[in-house]
Amino acid sequence: MEILTVAMAKGRIANQAITLLTEAGILFSDYDHKSRKLIFMDETKSIKLIFVKAVDVPTYVEQGAADIGVIGKDVLLEDPKDVYELLDLGIGKCKVAIAGFPDTELGARTQLKVASKYPNIAKSHFDQKGIRTDIIKLNGSVELAPLIGLADCIVDIVETGTTLKENGLVVLETITEVSARLIVNKASYAIKTERIQDFISDVKKGLEVYS
Q1: Contact 9, 71 (CB under 8 A)
Q2: 139 and 85: one domain?
Q3: Contact status, residue 77 vs residue 122, Cβ threshold 8 Å
Q4: What pTM, to 2 d.p., does this model score?
């Protein structure tokens, strides 16, 4: 049987995805979220699971190093790749939002300073609203930017809003709701069509149980 390679990133989405795959009858019995291993095989030895950084998942799939990927829609929006997006897994739900101090007026300044690890999403959104921006790319602790005057607001992933609240910030506007998606390499889909369709069919059955 042809081996399918599935790429995802360790963390919350991976743990949910493994549970989903288990419900679909795809078992990775030696998987342990605490393990430093990067490659796991399922019990049938026909599906290889590889762990890479979240931002790299679409690249692995686009380049054919993985046939299938599980990745948040936010990553796909920030850096689009030439892949098929075939299924919304409905896990890892959150939103990309603009956040800042409660009294922040987004359209009140001639130029808005925005800190984000999603500069493309941020710029595109504000451009569409006709708001000029100075986008500052940050890779972590984005909530700090308004607190120290680095930015007027931030664009970031928001799940519960707890971190924002603890830092005196609020969601000012939701840009889009996101969740984990199943993406497929275009060449793989052409060559391994039946195999990939069977995998997706199994995942859909798992979704019915998981949800």
Answers
A1: yes
A2: no
A3: no
A4: 0.91
Burial of 196 (0-12, 13-18, 19+ CB in 10 A): buried
Assess contact for 109 and 152: CB atoms under 8 A.
yes
Amino acid identity of 3?
A: I
Q: What is the pLDDT of residue 211?
A: 63
pLDDT tens digits, 173-203: 999 999 999 999 999 999 999 999 999 999 9
117-129 tens-digit pLDDT: 999 999 999 999 9
The answer on 67 and 124 residing in a single domain is no
Same domain for 144 and 161, yes or no, is yes
What is the Cα 99 distance to its own chain's centre? 19
Domain residues for the domain of 83 are: 4-92+179-210
109-160: per-residue pLDDT in tens?
A: 789 999 999 999 999 999 999 999 999 999 989 999 999 999 999 999 999 8
Chain segment 87-97, per-residue pLDDT in tens: 999 999 999 99
Neighbours of 115 (CB within 10 A): 25
Report the alpha-carbon distance of residue 162 to residue 80 in Å, rounded: 29
